[in-house]
Every structure is written in structure tokens, then in C-alpha cells.
Amino acid sequence: MIFNKYIVVLTMIFINGLAFSQVGINTETPRARLDVQGNLSIRNRIYLGGSDSVNGLLGDVGSVLVSQGANNPPVWKVIRRPDFDPFLYTIFNNVAGDTTSGITFNSTTTGSEIHTLNQTLTSFGGTQITALQKDFQIENPESITILTFETIAQINSSAVSSAVEFSCGIFVDDLLKGIRVYTLNQPGTATFPFYTFDLVAAVSNLTIATHTAKVACKRRANFNSFTDILGIGTPANTANLNSFMTKSSLVVETYEKPSTGNTVPVYNP
Questions:
Q1: Using the 8-state DSSP alphabet, how is residue 57 labeled?
Q2: DSSP 3-state assignment of 12?
Q3: CA-CA-CA-CA torsion for 225, 229, 231, 235, nearest 10 degrees?
Q4: Helix (H/G/I), strand (E/B), else coil: 131
Q5: Which ranges in the chain are annotated with CATH 2.60.120.1340?
Q6: pTM of the full structure
Q7: What class has domain 90-256?
Q8: What is the pLDDT of residues 223-257, one digit of tens each?
């Protein structure tokens, strides 16, 4: 009986020590309530939060423990992303720019010629929106580059059926990669009509190098004797638009397939 009393007393001392001090495993100087110096193997559940009477939360399938910073408990978080092959196309580069410095065209036209893939910027004969010029880098031989141009086109017209045909193209290294032709007209009595012009071009497998993207536009033809101003990326008439409303933008996104020997880390350690 005396032996059993000693066990009870020692057990109470041990429990009391757990309640009010720090416990170390493989260390005599624990730095936390429980300090484990070595491997930790958990064979069942991990509960977060809870109380003396209620278990904490179990994470959902696929969830991970996420720190909330100093003096805050960790939480379960689910990472929402699809499964992916690390050697399929991955975004590597994204550059963009915008400008309120657009182009104003007078009555002069260039004609309705047919444009072709890889036509040179010089032979295109248009006017470049120089503030949108962007350099971008290709690091791998297999890639897809997406170039997106958006602007507002407006004619300074107050006559029904006035119209202008124009085109805008996206060039990579001064070679035409995408173009759209549009006829902006005034079908009714509303004056100074405008149009939101969008162009998306896709280019595959550019060489490993630094490349340059440019945008250029041209006035191709006039209709119904219209000879007034065409504005692209700038107002032709400020009665219903201003430079902020008509500004242009260009976005360049490169998706590249890393080589099997790629050793670039996916994060900075």
C-alpha cells in the first residue's frame, strides 16, 4: 500500500508538471509547451481548436495546415487548383501597358489590300502606337505567346451613313502575327460614333531570345464621302469621349513548356 501511495504521489507531481511547465523530448531545454527534437509520426487524426469538452476541427480531404502568423493558431486551408503536369505549358512571363497617346488619321487612306501572316511592319504602311511597344523573353523552345490589344475607335461624324474602314495589327519582331479589319459607321442620327476594338493573336514556338511586340493601325477606306477625323486610342471628338475613356492597352502572356532538364526552382527558398 505504501508503494502504491508513492506511485500516486509521483503521478500527481508528473501531471502537475505537465500542466504548468514545458515538456521536452530529446531536449532538456524545451522552448515550447511541447518541444520535440526529432521525427514526429502521427498515425491518426489532427484536431485544431476545440476545448476541454469538444474536439477541434479535422481538415477536409486535401486540406493543409496554414500558419496565421505570430500569436495566432494555425488553420486548415484547401488549395483550390486543378491537377497539372509540371512539364505542360506554364506561364512564365506577363507584361502589359496602356497609353492615352493614340493615333489621329486625316482623310488619307491606304487602300483595301490583303494582309498576310509575317507581313513586315514596313510593308503594312500603318502608324505604330509606340507607347504600347513591349519586350518579352522566351526561355524554352516550345511556347505559346498570347498578345491582346484593346482600344476605342471613333469618327468625327454628324452625317448618317458616314463610315471608315480601318485595320489594326499586332507585330512580333516587326512581323505581322494578328490583324482585324473593321468598318466604323454612323447608321442613325447619333453623332460621333465609337467602337471597342479587340484583337487577340497567338504565336507558337518563338525562338529563345528577347522579342518585341508592337501595334500599328491604318485607315483603309472612306465611305459616303466621309473625310473627317478617325481616332484610334484617342478621341476624334470630345463631346462624348475623353482620353481616359479611349486609352489603349496591350497584354503579352507567354506560356512555355519547360525542358525535362529544367532545374529552375518553382519558388524562391
A1: B
A2: helix
A3: -130
A4: helix
A5: 90-256
A6: 0.68
A7: mainly beta
A8: 999 999 999 999 999 999 999 999 999 999 999 88
